[in-house]
Amino acid sequence: MKIAVTGGSGKLGRHVVRRLTEEGHQVMNLDRTGERSPGLAIVDLRNYGQVLDVLFSLDSRHSGFDAVVHLGAVPAPGLMPDAATFENNMLSTYNVFQACRRAGIKKVVYASSETVLGLPFDVDPPYIPV
Questions:
Q1: Residue 61 CB-half CA count within 13 A
Q2: Are 27 and 5 in contact (CB under 8 A)?
Q3: pTM score of the predicted model
Q4: Element (H, E) at 41
Q5: How confident is residue 117, by pLDDT bands cut at 50, 70 and 90?
Q6: How far is it, in rounded angstroms, from Cα 116 to Cα 10?
Q7: Domains in the chain: how many in total?
Q8: Of 9, 62, 104, 126, which residue has the fewest beta carbons closer than 10 angstroms?
Q9: Residue range(s) defining the domain that contains residue 14
Q10: CATH number for the domain harbouring residue 45
Q11: What mean pLDDT do residues 83-106 have?
């Protein structure tokens, strides 16, 4: 399969790209950063036009994706203001799903975030007297 991985330069994305490549898939990393290579397309997922361009094949590297693995996001709270994290993660996810729909890509894997459950707290919950 020809698979696009958003956030393929990140902590999880690097492993996904490597594993898919080892399994014999053609993989394109779509990320804002990363080591320059033929398998990397620099894309700002917050920009719908850029996402459409890469999924609609501006050149032969990007043509005819069979699937997208969407991992591109701000990975944890506290790296930037909450509103900026929300804007980045929601807008980029919306853009990826919309562009996949427009490009006819029917297989999308969305992994959310390793911190989706929140930050761990070592605080006892308040109890109500009985």
A1: 13
A2: yes
A3: 0.82
A4: strand 40-42
A5: low
A6: 16
A7: 1
A8: 126
A9: 2-110
A10: 3.40.50.720
A11: 93
